[in-house]
Amino acid sequence: MILVTGATGTVGSEVVRELAGRGAPVRAFVRSLEKAAMFDGLGVDVVQGDLEDAASVATALDGADHLFLLTAVPPNQVELERGVVEAAASSGVEHIVKLSALNVADDSPVNFFRWHRETERNIEASGAGWTHLRPNNFFQNLLFQVDAIREQGAFYGPFGDAPISSIDVRDIAAVSATVLMEPGHMGKTLDLTGPVALTHAEMASSLTDALGREVSYVNVSLDDARASMLGMGMPEYIANDLTTLSGELAGGSGSGTTATVESVTGKPARPLEAFASDNARAFGS
Ligand SMILES: NC(=O)c1ccc[n+]([C@@H]2O[C@H](COP(=O)([O-])OP(=O)(O)OC[C@H]3O[C@@H](n4cnc5c(N)ncnc54)[C@H](OP(=O)(O)O)[C@@H]3O)[C@@H](O)[C@H]2O)c1
Asked: Do 158 and 120 have their domain in common?
C-alpha cells in the first residue's frame, strides 16, 4: 500500500491519480472528505486525518509500505515532517519519497529550502529507504493568475529575463509513481525540470500560441510582488520567502535543465504548450 500525503493538493492529487491509473494500491491521506470526492471511482483508499494529529497518521500508516511525503509550507514543517518520518519508519514503511524542491541546501537563503533539506536528512537517517524529488517551479503556478490572463491578457512576476525550466506537475506525478512502484530508485536525489528553460516573455509567447490570443508578461519589482502576495492574504513568512526565492530565480538559479523525467518515466517532460492547451478553458480560451 502506498500512502500519499498532501493528497488533495496540486501535486498530491496528480500522484494519487497516476498511481490509481497504474493499478497500484493507493491510500490518500486527507483533511477533508469533501475534497476527497475527487478520487471517487478511482479505487483509492481514503483516510481522513491531519498531519498534526499523530494518531491519525498512525492509522493511515497501518499496512503502508511506501510513503509519498508532501506537506504545504507550515512554519513547523521540519517538526511536522520529522514526526511523520519517524512514525513511518517505526511502522515498517520501506521507502519514503519526499517532495522537496530544486536547489534545496543547508545554506539556502530560502527558508523553505533549508527546511526541505533538513527533512531530507531526517529521512536519510530514519532507516527507511528514500528518494528525494527536487522539482523546479510548477507550470501550474500560472493557474494562480487565471483571472489576470482571462481579463487582461497578462500575467505578472518579478523574474526579469531569467530563463526558468519550470515543470508540469503531471510529470512530477509520473516520476513519483515510477519511483514508488518500480525498483532501482532508492537512495537517489532527482532534480526534475521541464524540457527547456524559458524566460517569462517566452512563456507569454507560448501561451499566446497555445491559447490563440495575445498573452503578455508584465515584469514587476520584488517589492511589488511581495505586496501583491500580502494583498492576496498570503501569510507574511510565506510572502517573504517566496520573494527571496523569486530573487534567486531572477538571478538565474532555475535555468538548468535535466532529462530526469524522461530517463525515469520513458516519456519526455511536457512542454508549456501542452500544459496551456490542456488548461485552455481555465485560461478563458
Ligand atoms: N509551487 C512550486 O512551484 C513548487 C516548486 C517546487 C517545490 N514545491 C513544493 O511543493 C510543496 C507544495 O505542494 P502543492 O503545491 O501540491 O501544495 P498544495 O496544493 O498547497 O497542497 C498542500 C496539501 O497538503 C495538505 N495539508 C496541508 N496541511 C496539512 C495537514 N496539517 N495535515 C494534512 N494535510 C495537510 C493540503 O490539504 P487541504 O487540501 O485540506 O488544504 C493539501 O492536500 C511545497 O513543499 C513546496 O515547497 C513547490
From this structure: no
Residue 215 DSSP class: -
Sheet holding 26-30, edge to edge: 45-48, 26-30, 2-4, 66-69, 95-99, 129-135, 188-192
**Chain segment 177-234, per-residue pLDDT in tens:** 999 999 999 999 999 999 999 999 999 999 999 999 999 999 999 999 999 999 999 9
Distance 71 CA to ligand 1 centre (A): 5
179 grid coordinates: 519511483
50 pocket-lining for ligand 1 (C-beta < 6 Å): yes
Q: What residues form DSSP beta bridges with 217?
A: 155
Co-location of 118 and 196 in the same domain? no
**Helix 10-21 × helix 169-181 angle, to 10°:** 50
Name the amino acid, one letter, at 149. Answer: I
Given phi > 0 = left and psi -120 to 50 = alpha, else beta, which region is 212?
A: left
pTM of the model: 0.98
Grid cell listed for 92? 515498517
Per the structure, the count of domains in the chain is: 2
Q: How much distance in Å is there from the Cα of 7 to the middle of ligand 1?
A: 8
109/222 same-domain check = no
Residue 7 CB less than 6 A away from ligand 1: yes
